[in-house]
Design a protein that fits this description.
By secondary structure, the protein is of the alpha+beta class. Helix content is 29%, strand content 26%. It binds adenosine monophosphate and glycine. Glycine (GLY) binds next to loops.
Length: 423
Protein backbone atom coordinates (compact mmCIF):
# COMPACT_ATOMS: atom_id res chain seq x y z
CA UNK A 1 0.00 0.00 0.00
CA UNK A 2 1.26 3.48 -0.85
CA UNK A 3 1.16 5.87 2.11
CA UNK A 4 1.25 9.66 2.37
CA UNK A 5 2.31 11.27 5.66
CA UNK A 6 1.39 14.95 6.09
CA UNK A 7 3.81 17.13 8.08
CA UNK A 8 7.47 18.06 8.32
CA UNK A 9 8.68 17.71 11.90
CA UNK A 10 10.38 15.22 14.17
CA UNK A 11 7.06 13.52 14.77
CA UNK A 12 6.53 12.91 11.06
CA UNK A 13 10.12 11.69 10.68
CA UNK A 14 9.45 9.15 13.45
CA UNK A 15 6.17 8.07 11.80
CA UNK A 16 7.84 7.65 8.40
CA UNK A 17 10.85 5.84 9.89
CA UNK A 18 8.54 3.38 11.64
CA UNK A 19 6.30 2.89 8.59
CA UNK A 20 9.29 1.81 6.49
CA UNK A 21 9.54 -1.30 8.73
CA UNK A 22 6.10 -2.45 7.57
CA UNK A 23 5.84 -5.41 5.19
CA UNK A 24 2.61 -3.89 3.86
CA UNK A 25 4.25 -0.64 2.74
CA UNK A 26 4.55 0.17 -0.95
CA UNK A 27 5.77 3.68 -1.69
CA UNK A 28 6.05 6.19 1.15
CA UNK A 29 5.56 9.91 0.52
CA UNK A 30 5.71 12.82 2.94
CA UNK A 31 4.35 16.32 2.32
CA UNK A 32 6.28 18.52 2.70
CA UNK A 33 8.82 16.47 4.74
CA UNK A 34 12.40 17.53 5.50
CA UNK A 35 15.89 16.24 4.58
CA UNK A 36 15.83 13.59 7.33
CA UNK A 37 12.44 12.35 6.18
CA UNK A 38 13.86 12.37 2.65
CA UNK A 39 16.15 9.51 3.63
CA UNK A 40 13.17 7.20 4.31
CA UNK A 41 10.36 8.66 2.16
CA UNK A 42 9.90 10.68 -1.00
CA UNK A 43 9.22 14.29 -0.05
CA UNK A 44 6.47 16.10 -1.93
CA UNK A 45 6.46 19.89 -2.01
CA UNK A 46 2.90 20.58 -0.79
CA UNK A 47 2.15 22.57 2.36
CA UNK A 48 0.07 20.91 5.08
CA UNK A 49 -2.69 23.55 4.72
CA UNK A 50 -3.09 22.97 0.98
CA UNK A 51 -5.80 20.33 1.33
CA UNK A 52 -6.98 20.31 -2.33
CA UNK A 53 -3.41 19.73 -3.57
CA UNK A 54 -2.89 16.94 -1.03
CA UNK A 55 -6.11 15.27 -2.18
CA UNK A 56 -5.04 15.51 -5.83
CA UNK A 57 -1.69 14.02 -4.99
CA UNK A 58 -3.30 11.14 -3.09
CA UNK A 59 -5.71 10.42 -5.96
CA UNK A 60 -2.99 10.55 -8.60
CA UNK A 61 -0.50 8.39 -6.71
CA UNK A 62 -2.75 5.56 -5.62
CA UNK A 63 -2.37 6.43 -1.93
CA UNK A 64 -4.09 3.78 0.20
CA UNK A 65 -3.71 5.64 3.50
CA UNK A 66 -2.88 9.21 4.45
CA UNK A 67 -1.59 9.92 7.97
CA UNK A 68 -2.02 13.45 9.30
CA UNK A 69 0.73 14.64 11.67
CA UNK A 70 -0.02 18.23 12.77
CA UNK A 71 -3.10 19.79 14.36
CA UNK A 72 -3.60 22.68 11.92
CA UNK A 73 -4.85 20.63 8.93
CA UNK A 74 -6.94 18.49 11.30
CA UNK A 75 -8.62 21.60 12.69
CA UNK A 76 -9.24 22.74 9.10
CA UNK A 77 -11.12 19.52 8.34
CA UNK A 78 -8.56 17.66 6.22
CA UNK A 79 -9.98 14.30 7.29
CA UNK A 80 -13.53 15.25 6.27
CA UNK A 81 -12.25 16.41 2.86
CA UNK A 82 -10.20 13.26 2.25
CA UNK A 83 -13.13 11.03 3.17
CA UNK A 84 -15.43 13.00 0.87
CA UNK A 85 -12.95 12.28 -1.91
CA UNK A 86 -13.17 8.56 -1.08
CA UNK A 87 -9.67 8.43 0.42
CA UNK A 88 -8.70 6.47 3.54
CA UNK A 89 -7.15 8.70 6.17
CA UNK A 90 -5.87 8.35 9.72
CA UNK A 91 -6.91 11.24 11.99
CA UNK A 92 -9.99 12.84 13.55
CA UNK A 93 -12.63 14.88 11.73
CA UNK A 94 -12.76 18.64 12.22
CA UNK A 95 -15.51 18.24 14.82
CA UNK A 96 -13.61 15.56 16.73
CA UNK A 97 -10.44 17.68 16.59
CA UNK A 98 -12.26 20.38 18.60
CA UNK A 99 -10.93 18.53 21.66
CA UNK A 100 -7.61 20.14 20.82
CA UNK A 101 -8.51 23.15 18.68
CA UNK A 102 -10.88 24.67 21.24
CA UNK A 103 -9.95 24.59 24.91
CA UNK A 104 -13.43 25.86 25.81
CA UNK A 105 -15.03 22.99 23.87
CA UNK A 106 -12.75 20.51 25.65
CA UNK A 107 -13.54 21.94 29.09
CA UNK A 108 -17.31 22.02 28.55
CA UNK A 109 -17.15 18.50 27.15
CA UNK A 110 -15.29 17.30 30.26
CA UNK A 111 -17.74 19.05 32.57
CA UNK A 112 -20.67 17.44 30.78
CA UNK A 113 -19.20 13.93 30.85
CA UNK A 114 -17.66 14.23 34.35
CA UNK A 115 -14.09 13.73 33.16
CA UNK A 116 -11.57 14.81 35.82
CA UNK A 117 -9.98 18.18 35.02
CA UNK A 118 -9.27 21.51 36.76
CA UNK A 119 -12.27 23.68 37.68
CA UNK A 120 -12.63 26.54 35.17
CA UNK A 121 -14.63 29.43 33.72
CA UNK A 122 -14.74 30.76 30.14
CA UNK A 123 -14.47 34.49 29.36
CA UNK A 124 -15.14 36.53 26.22
CA UNK A 125 -13.74 39.83 27.47
CA UNK A 126 -10.81 41.08 29.53
CA UNK A 127 -12.88 43.06 32.04
CA UNK A 128 -15.08 40.14 33.14
CA UNK A 129 -12.00 37.92 33.35
CA UNK A 130 -10.25 40.44 35.61
CA UNK A 131 -13.35 40.80 37.77
CA UNK A 132 -13.41 37.01 38.29
CA UNK A 133 -9.71 36.96 39.14
CA UNK A 134 -10.11 39.55 41.93
CA UNK A 135 -11.45 36.82 44.22
CA UNK A 136 -9.21 34.00 43.02
CA UNK A 137 -6.28 32.40 44.78
CA UNK A 138 -3.12 32.54 42.61
CA UNK A 139 -1.49 30.94 40.72
CA UNK A 140 -4.24 30.42 38.15
CA UNK A 141 -3.89 29.19 34.58
CA UNK A 142 -5.00 31.37 31.64
CA UNK A 143 -5.41 29.61 28.29
CA UNK A 144 -6.13 31.12 24.90
CA UNK A 145 -9.05 29.16 23.46
CA UNK A 146 -7.58 28.24 20.08
CA UNK A 147 -4.39 26.68 18.72
CA UNK A 148 -1.20 28.48 19.76
CA UNK A 149 1.63 25.98 19.12
CA UNK A 150 1.86 25.04 22.79
CA UNK A 151 2.49 28.64 23.81
CA UNK A 152 -1.05 29.84 24.60
CA UNK A 153 -0.92 28.96 28.31
CA UNK A 154 0.15 31.50 30.92
CA UNK A 155 0.43 30.94 34.67
CA UNK A 156 0.38 34.38 36.34
CA UNK A 157 1.52 34.66 39.96
CA UNK A 158 -0.71 37.61 40.82
CA UNK A 159 -3.38 39.93 39.47
CA UNK A 160 -0.95 42.31 37.81
CA UNK A 161 0.68 39.49 35.83
CA UNK A 162 -2.79 38.23 34.93
CA UNK A 163 -3.76 41.71 33.69
CA UNK A 164 -0.73 41.76 31.38
CA UNK A 165 -1.48 38.24 30.10
CA UNK A 166 -5.12 39.05 29.36
CA UNK A 167 -4.09 42.26 27.58
CA UNK A 168 -1.64 40.30 25.42
CA UNK A 169 -4.05 37.47 24.59
CA UNK A 170 -7.40 39.27 24.30
CA UNK A 171 -6.47 42.80 23.24
CA UNK A 172 -3.11 42.58 21.45
CA UNK A 173 -4.07 39.14 20.11
CA UNK A 174 -0.54 37.74 20.25
CA UNK A 175 -2.03 34.32 19.40
CA UNK A 176 -4.40 35.78 16.79
CA UNK A 177 -8.02 34.69 16.86
CA UNK A 178 -7.08 31.94 19.36
CA UNK A 179 -7.40 34.74 21.93
CA UNK A 180 -11.03 35.71 21.31
CA UNK A 181 -11.98 33.59 24.33
CA UNK A 182 -9.96 32.46 27.30
CA UNK A 183 -10.33 29.60 29.74
CA UNK A 184 -9.22 30.41 33.28
CA UNK A 185 -8.67 27.31 35.36
CA UNK A 186 -7.38 26.28 38.74
CA UNK A 187 -3.72 25.43 39.05
CA UNK A 188 -3.15 21.69 39.51
CA UNK A 189 -0.27 20.37 41.58
CA UNK A 190 1.46 17.16 40.59
CA UNK A 191 3.68 15.56 38.01
CA UNK A 192 2.73 15.57 34.32
CA UNK A 193 2.62 12.60 31.96
CA UNK A 194 1.36 12.02 28.43
CA UNK A 195 -0.87 9.09 27.62
CA UNK A 196 -1.65 8.35 23.97
CA UNK A 197 -3.98 5.80 22.44
CA UNK A 198 -4.88 4.79 18.91
CA UNK A 199 -8.65 5.06 18.45
CA UNK A 200 -10.95 3.64 15.77
CA UNK A 201 -14.10 5.55 16.79
CA UNK A 202 -14.96 3.25 19.68
CA UNK A 203 -12.09 0.89 20.56
CA UNK A 204 -8.57 1.79 21.60
CA UNK A 205 -5.05 0.43 21.34
CA UNK A 206 -3.03 1.97 24.19
CA UNK A 207 0.52 3.18 23.65
CA UNK A 208 3.28 3.23 26.24
CA UNK A 209 3.39 6.30 28.50
CA UNK A 210 5.78 9.19 27.91
CA UNK A 211 6.80 12.46 29.42
CA UNK A 212 7.63 15.70 27.64
CA UNK A 213 9.82 18.58 28.90
CA UNK A 214 8.02 21.80 28.03
CA UNK A 215 10.34 24.43 29.53
CA UNK A 216 13.36 25.52 27.56
CA UNK A 217 16.02 25.29 30.31
CA UNK A 218 17.23 22.63 32.75
CA UNK A 219 15.24 22.10 35.95
CA UNK A 220 12.10 23.30 34.17
CA UNK A 221 13.19 26.92 34.00
CA UNK A 222 12.40 29.49 31.32
CA UNK A 223 9.46 29.80 28.95
CA UNK A 224 7.35 26.97 27.51
CA UNK A 225 8.37 25.48 24.17
CA UNK A 226 6.91 22.90 21.81
CA UNK A 227 8.88 20.32 23.85
CA UNK A 228 12.63 20.01 24.55
CA UNK A 229 12.81 16.26 25.00
CA UNK A 230 10.91 13.22 26.12
CA UNK A 231 11.27 9.80 27.66
CA UNK A 232 9.21 6.64 27.72
CA UNK A 233 7.94 5.05 29.87
CA UNK A 234 6.98 7.67 32.46
CA UNK A 235 7.47 5.62 35.67
CA UNK A 236 5.18 8.05 37.52
CA UNK A 237 2.25 6.57 35.59
CA UNK A 238 2.13 3.19 37.32
CA UNK A 239 -0.25 0.40 36.33
CA UNK A 240 -3.02 1.52 38.66
CA UNK A 241 -2.86 5.16 37.47
CA UNK A 242 -2.79 3.90 33.89
CA UNK A 243 -5.99 1.91 34.50
CA UNK A 244 -7.61 4.99 36.06
CA UNK A 245 -6.58 7.02 33.02
CA UNK A 246 -8.15 4.53 30.63
CA UNK A 247 -11.34 3.99 32.61
CA UNK A 248 -12.02 7.49 33.93
CA UNK A 249 -10.64 9.56 31.05
CA UNK A 250 -9.91 7.84 27.74
CA UNK A 251 -12.94 5.56 27.39
CA UNK A 252 -15.47 8.15 28.65
CA UNK A 253 -14.03 10.71 26.20
CA UNK A 254 -14.45 8.34 23.27
CA UNK A 255 -17.95 7.35 24.33
CA UNK A 256 -18.90 11.01 24.95
CA UNK A 257 -17.62 12.13 21.55
CA UNK A 258 -19.56 9.32 19.86
CA UNK A 259 -22.68 10.35 21.80
CA UNK A 260 -22.29 13.92 20.47
CA UNK A 261 -22.00 12.62 16.91
CA UNK A 262 -18.28 13.52 16.83
CA UNK A 263 -16.78 10.03 16.68
CA UNK A 264 -13.08 10.21 17.47
CA UNK A 265 -10.69 8.34 15.16
CA UNK A 266 -6.93 8.78 15.20
CA UNK A 267 -4.57 9.38 18.10
CA UNK A 268 -6.06 10.74 21.29
CA UNK A 269 -3.39 12.31 23.46
CA UNK A 270 -4.26 13.08 27.06
CA UNK A 271 -1.89 15.49 28.79
CA UNK A 272 -2.30 14.53 32.44
CA UNK A 273 -1.54 16.03 35.81
CA UNK A 274 -1.14 13.24 38.36
CA UNK A 275 -2.66 14.96 41.37
CA UNK A 276 -3.22 13.55 44.85
CA UNK A 277 -6.84 13.00 43.76
CA UNK A 278 -5.77 10.96 40.72
CA UNK A 279 -5.08 11.82 37.07
CA UNK A 280 -6.70 15.01 35.73
CA UNK A 281 -6.70 16.26 32.16
CA UNK A 282 -4.50 19.29 31.45
CA UNK A 283 -5.09 19.21 27.72
CA UNK A 284 -6.08 16.98 24.84
CA UNK A 285 -4.25 16.72 21.58
CA UNK A 286 -5.91 14.97 18.69
CA UNK A 287 -2.73 13.64 17.09
CA UNK A 288 0.66 12.14 17.91
CA UNK A 289 2.66 14.26 20.38
CA UNK A 290 5.91 15.89 19.41
CA UNK A 291 8.45 14.86 20.80
CA UNK A 292 6.60 12.00 22.54
CA UNK A 293 6.23 10.12 19.24
CA UNK A 294 10.01 10.08 18.88
CA UNK A 295 10.27 7.94 22.04
CA UNK A 296 7.05 5.93 21.68
CA UNK A 297 7.39 4.61 18.12
CA UNK A 298 10.96 3.27 18.54
CA UNK A 299 9.46 1.07 21.31
CA UNK A 300 6.68 -0.28 19.06
CA UNK A 301 7.51 -3.80 17.92
CA UNK A 302 4.29 -4.28 15.93
CA UNK A 303 3.52 -3.06 12.43
CA UNK A 304 2.46 0.59 12.66
CA UNK A 305 0.83 0.56 9.25
CA UNK A 306 -1.42 -2.36 10.24
CA UNK A 307 -2.51 -0.47 13.36
CA UNK A 308 -3.25 2.74 11.46
CA UNK A 309 -5.25 0.92 8.78
CA UNK A 310 -7.24 -1.01 11.41
CA UNK A 311 -8.14 2.26 13.17
CA UNK A 312 -9.07 4.03 9.94
CA UNK A 313 -11.33 1.04 9.14
CA UNK A 314 -12.97 0.99 12.60
CA UNK A 315 -11.38 -2.39 13.38
CA UNK A 316 -8.89 -1.67 16.17
CA UNK A 317 -9.92 -4.85 17.98
CA UNK A 318 -8.43 -6.90 15.12
CA UNK A 319 -4.84 -5.86 15.96
CA UNK A 320 -2.65 -5.62 19.06
CA UNK A 321 0.48 -3.64 19.79
CA UNK A 322 3.62 -5.22 21.25
CA UNK A 323 6.13 -2.94 22.94
CA UNK A 324 9.86 -3.11 23.58
CA UNK A 325 10.56 -3.23 27.33
CA UNK A 326 13.57 -0.98 26.88
CA UNK A 327 13.10 2.72 27.65
CA UNK A 328 13.72 5.43 25.06
CA UNK A 329 14.97 8.98 25.46
CA UNK A 330 14.83 11.90 23.01
CA UNK A 331 16.93 15.03 23.44
CA UNK A 332 15.81 17.97 21.31
CA UNK A 333 18.60 20.12 19.89
CA UNK A 334 17.16 23.57 19.28
CA UNK A 335 18.32 26.81 17.67
CA UNK A 336 19.95 29.39 19.95
CA UNK A 337 17.28 31.82 21.13
CA UNK A 338 14.32 29.42 20.73
CA UNK A 339 11.45 29.75 21.76
CA UNK A 340 12.17 33.43 21.06
CA UNK A 341 13.93 34.74 17.96
CA UNK A 342 16.53 32.50 16.34
CA UNK A 343 18.49 32.27 13.10
CA UNK A 344 18.08 29.56 10.46
CA UNK A 345 20.63 28.23 7.99
CA UNK A 346 23.28 26.96 10.43
CA UNK A 347 25.23 24.04 8.99
CA UNK A 348 24.76 20.85 11.01
CA UNK A 349 27.80 18.58 11.49
CA UNK A 350 28.12 15.03 12.76
CA UNK A 351 24.67 13.74 11.75
CA UNK A 352 25.98 10.61 10.10
CA UNK A 353 28.28 9.63 12.95
CA UNK A 354 25.58 10.26 15.54
CA UNK A 355 23.00 8.22 13.66
CA UNK A 356 25.24 5.24 12.95
CA UNK A 357 25.21 3.90 16.53
CA UNK A 358 22.94 0.92 17.21
CA UNK A 359 19.53 1.78 18.69
CA UNK A 360 20.06 5.49 18.01
CA UNK A 361 18.08 7.57 15.52
CA UNK A 362 18.44 11.26 14.79
CA UNK A 363 14.99 12.55 13.85
CA UNK A 364 14.97 15.80 11.89
CA UNK A 365 12.52 18.44 13.08
CA UNK A 366 13.53 21.81 11.60
CA UNK A 367 16.12 21.14 8.92
CA UNK A 368 16.57 22.07 5.27
CA UNK A 369 18.99 21.28 2.47
CA UNK A 370 21.39 23.91 1.24
CA UNK A 371 23.75 22.87 -1.58
CA UNK A 372 23.83 19.30 -0.35
CA UNK A 373 24.43 20.33 3.28
CA UNK A 374 21.84 19.90 6.02
CA UNK A 375 21.16 23.22 7.75
CA UNK A 376 18.88 24.32 10.58
CA UNK A 377 15.46 25.61 9.61
CA UNK A 378 13.28 25.98 12.68
CA UNK A 379 13.25 26.33 16.45
CA UNK A 380 13.48 22.66 17.23
CA UNK A 381 16.11 21.28 14.86
CA UNK A 382 16.74 17.63 15.78
CA UNK A 383 15.34 14.97 18.11
CA UNK A 384 18.23 12.73 19.05
CA UNK A 385 16.70 9.47 20.23
CA UNK A 386 18.12 6.29 21.75
CA UNK A 387 16.95 3.10 23.38
CA UNK A 388 18.85 1.57 26.29
CA UNK A 389 18.73 -1.50 28.54
CA UNK A 390 17.44 0.83 31.26
CA UNK A 391 16.63 4.54 31.53
CA UNK A 392 20.21 5.42 32.54
CA UNK A 393 21.62 3.62 29.50
CA UNK A 394 19.05 5.27 27.20
CA UNK A 395 19.98 8.71 28.57
CA UNK A 396 23.71 8.00 28.14
CA UNK A 397 23.20 6.71 24.59
CA UNK A 398 21.13 9.75 23.59
CA UNK A 399 23.62 12.26 25.03
CA UNK A 400 26.53 10.38 23.51
CA UNK A 401 24.89 10.89 20.10
CA UNK A 402 24.16 14.55 20.91
CA UNK A 403 27.85 15.11 21.68
CA UNK A 404 28.72 14.13 18.10
CA UNK A 405 26.44 16.78 16.56
CA UNK A 406 27.17 20.45 16.35
CA UNK A 407 25.74 23.60 14.81
CA UNK A 408 26.23 27.24 15.70
CA UNK A 409 24.10 28.30 18.66
CA UNK A 410 22.75 24.79 19.36
CA UNK A 411 21.03 24.50 22.74
CA UNK A 412 19.60 21.48 24.48
CA UNK A 413 18.60 20.44 27.97
CA UNK A 414 21.10 18.35 29.93
CA UNK A 415 18.50 16.87 32.26
CA UNK A 416 16.10 14.94 30.01
CA UNK A 417 14.55 12.00 31.92
CA UNK A 418 16.07 13.16 35.22
CA UNK A 419 12.67 12.97 36.88
CA UNK A 420 12.46 9.28 36.02
CA UNK A 421 15.39 8.69 38.39
CA UNK A 422 13.74 10.44 41.29
CA UNK A 423 11.48 7.47 41.89
P1 LIG B 1 -1.43 23.03 27.72
O1 LIG B 1 -1.03 23.70 26.43
O2 LIG B 1 -2.85 23.18 28.07
O3 LIG B 1 -0.90 21.63 27.78
O4 LIG B 1 -0.58 23.73 28.86
C1 LIG B 1 0.82 23.86 28.77
C2 LIG B 1 1.46 23.58 30.09
O5 LIG B 1 0.93 24.45 31.10
C3 LIG B 1 1.15 22.19 30.63
O6 LIG B 1 2.00 21.22 30.10
C4 LIG B 1 1.33 22.39 32.11
O7 LIG B 1 2.70 22.35 32.45
C5 LIG B 1 0.84 23.78 32.34
N1 LIG B 1 -0.58 23.72 32.76
C6 LIG B 1 -1.66 23.79 31.97
N2 LIG B 1 -2.79 23.71 32.70
C7 LIG B 1 -2.42 23.60 33.98
C8 LIG B 1 -3.13 23.50 35.23
N3 LIG B 1 -4.45 23.52 35.29
N4 LIG B 1 -2.39 23.43 36.36
C9 LIG B 1 -1.05 23.43 36.32
N5 LIG B 1 -0.33 23.52 35.20
C10 LIG B 1 -0.99 23.62 34.02
N1 LIG C 1 4.43 17.41 23.26
C1 LIG C 1 3.27 18.18 23.29
C2 LIG C 1 2.59 18.29 22.00
O1 LIG C 1 2.80 17.53 21.09
O2 LIG C 1 1.77 19.18 21.86
Amino acid sequence: MNVLVVGSGGREHAICWKLTQSKKLGKLYCAPGNPGIGSVAQCVDIRVENIPALINFALENDIGLTVIGPEIPLSMGIVDEFEKAGLKVFGPSREAALLESSKSFAKEFMRRFAIPTAAYEIFYGREEALEYLKNKKFPVVIKADGLAAGKGVIIPKDLSEARIALEEIMVNRVFGSAGSKVVIEDFLEGEEASYLVFVDGSDIIPMVSAQDHKRVFDNDQGPNTGGMGAYSPAPVLNKSLENDTINKIILPVIAGMAQLGKKFKGVLYAGLMLTKDGPKVVEFNCRFGDPETQVILPRLKSDLLEILIACADGKASSVTAQWDERPAVCVVMASGGYPGKYENGKQINGLEEAGSTKDTVVFHAGTASNNGEVVSSGGRVLGVTALGANMRAAVDNAYSAVSKISFEGAQYRKDIAKRAFNR
